Amino acid sequence: MISKSKRINGVSPPINDERSTVLELRRVVRQYEGTPPVRAVDNVDLRIATGELVAIVGPSGSGKSTLLNLIGTLDRPTSGRLFVDGVDTSELSDSALAGLRSARIGFVFQQFHLLSGMTAVENVAAGLLYRGISRTERRKRSTEVLKRVGLGHRLSHLPNKLSGGERQRVAIARALVGDPAIVLADEPTGNLDSKTSNEIVELMHRLHADGSTIVVITHDKELAANLPRQISIRDGKLESDSTNRTPPLSVVQGAGR
Amino acid sequence: MKSPFTKGKSGPWKSQLRPGDVIGTGTVGLRTRRARAAFTAIGIAIGIASMVAVMGISSSSRADLLAELDSLGTNLLQVRPGQNTFGDSVKMSADAPGMIRRIAPVEAATSVSEINKTVQRSDKVPSNTKNGITTYGSEANLASTLGAKASSGRVHDKASVKLPTVVLGSVSAERLGITDVETAPRVWIGGKWFAVIGVLEPLPLNPEIDRSALIGLDVARSTFDVKGLPSSIYVRTTPEQVENVRSVLARTASPGAPNEVSVARPSDALAARAEVDKNLQTLLLGLGGVALLVGGVGIANVMVISVIERRAEIGVRRALGATRRHIRNQFVVESTLLSLLGGLLGVAGGFGVTAFYANSQGWLLALPVQGMVFGVVAALLIGALAGLYPAVRAARLDPAEAVRPAA
Ligand SMILES: Nc1ncnc2c1ncn2[C@@H]1O[C@H](COP(=O)(O)OP(=O)(O)OP(=O)(O)O)[C@@H](O)[C@H]1O
Ligand SMILES: [Mg+2]
Fold first, then answer.
1. Is the CB of A58 inside a 6 Å radius of any atom of ligand 1?
2. What is the least distance, in Å, from the CA of B40 to any CA of chain A?
3. How much of chain A, in percent, has pLDDT values that exceed 90?
4. What is the CA radius of gyration of chain A?
5. Does the predicted interface ipTM exceed a cut of 0.95?
6. Domain boundary residue among B269, B297, B329?
7. Thinking of the domain A21-255, which architecture would CATH place it in?
8. Closest residue by Cα to residue A71 from A39, A96, A48, A95
9. Is A37 close to ligand 1, i.e. is its CB under 6 Å away?
């Protein structure tokens, strides 16, 4: 048991990219119990490297959100493994995963999920709350990031005084403020009109150019087409990956379930 | 299959929340839902206020009673003849007071002898009219033994007990319509006129004296041809020896039949009033306790609702790196602070009620420190307890579920 809990067991992931791997899924399955049980994520192999900007596309109910929650460690695989920074997350305790999220992962939600009653700065600062960083330092960094996303003039606004696009930019700032290894966005433009959506997409491109690693779920074909890499999902299975650098392992090994 | 939340290793990353931020996250819900917080706190405030008030009022009242007892002294004993086994009333012998005075720790002893004569304002009223005033033949040292003072005129002295003079107890004077002795009033006792030379102040320990007319014992014997045997002997002892004296009094007063006399300490009756207060206090404390229970259940209820409403917030916090413990603590702190808010309001309210009541009773205000400390501690405990279940529920929420858009 203890020896099994060692990292990666000496099986290093195949590196065919000079950039380091942030995240790797190996034969990940997430099955929801019920009659019949639903395999929302079915035997997925996936590797994401530092600095990538990835779109996940697929029809409704195909398992995109489930996959993103697994990547973000909000959920655990029924089977298979998820490595973050080379650490096998299946071995980690619940609070260790919380620590991982606080340090390495930023989330952006379709419904923004800002905390009402808190100003923009306070909302962004909440992204550093569970890092043991002092209040003044949190505010300082939050102000900087809000300026970066173009909201330097909205620091003390409450969420209900902000437009949808501004709210989502606050949420993006909150995801970025902890300087995460990867930002996960589940349909970040789903609640926005097309003009505001474009601003958010533009912002993501800019952040990508600055070196952030971003995975974004989208229904928007055009948006996805403009991103460097697209992964499409159907019935919980990886259908296609525009990058052939990381072919699904199951395909390579010709293994079934 | 593996349970989704098995215990596991600690990884290279660790969440941490500063102590100040634990309080900070615990106030978020209160700051953003002020009206609800206020309403929720009221239940606890009422419960704590009533308990603090009850404790404050009873301690003020007890302090007042103790001060009164202190000034009256608890070293006065009273010996009265009881009834013998045949139900006949017995008398004490005339030399009983003298024998009692010979007990070393006895500072003073004095007797009164009930004289079966009515006291009237005029000689025209039929002599069998009852007015509840008892005539006593008394000794010159009665006032000094009881600590009695005259509110008008003077008390008996060695000379006045040999003359047809009378000193009235406070209630008797009121019933006879005599408030002072300026006009040299007289009263008609058993067919003789007696000059009223004084009226006594009320004696809380000796209500029977308040309802009496005191004439000299020798005068009573010679005028009414009675034996004037003691019907009551008052004994003042040194404060330390009260119990010792008490244990030998019956035998001394009635050596032949010590069980036919009774010995009492009048201050005990007064102290019993504090006991009565205690019953009332228990009742009121019980009511306050019920209010607290209801207040606590109210807090738990509101917290459960709050957890359901704030599902998304909980999910977001988990996504931002909060551990289950952080979430649980946030809600426990919130409910504790909520209750503490109510508790502080309640302590202030209870103190106000105590001050108002003590003032209206003319009592010294005893700061109900005990009640106030109790109030704050009770509020803290109730809040933590009421918040525990909702907090654990919040901590157990599946983060992936919680961030999912509500159906
Ligand atoms: N908690 C759950 N219990 C049971 N089944 C679930 C649960 N959550 C999701 N599912 C099922 O898993 C499948 C994948 O759901 P998921 O939310 O990941 O899809 P999605 O690709 O994000 O869809 P959409 O584009 O509509 O958001 C669906 O069939 C859904 O019904
Ligand atoms: Mg989805």
1. yes
2. 19
3. 81
4. 18
5. no
6. B269
7. 3-Layer(aba) Sandwich (3.40)
8. A48
9. no
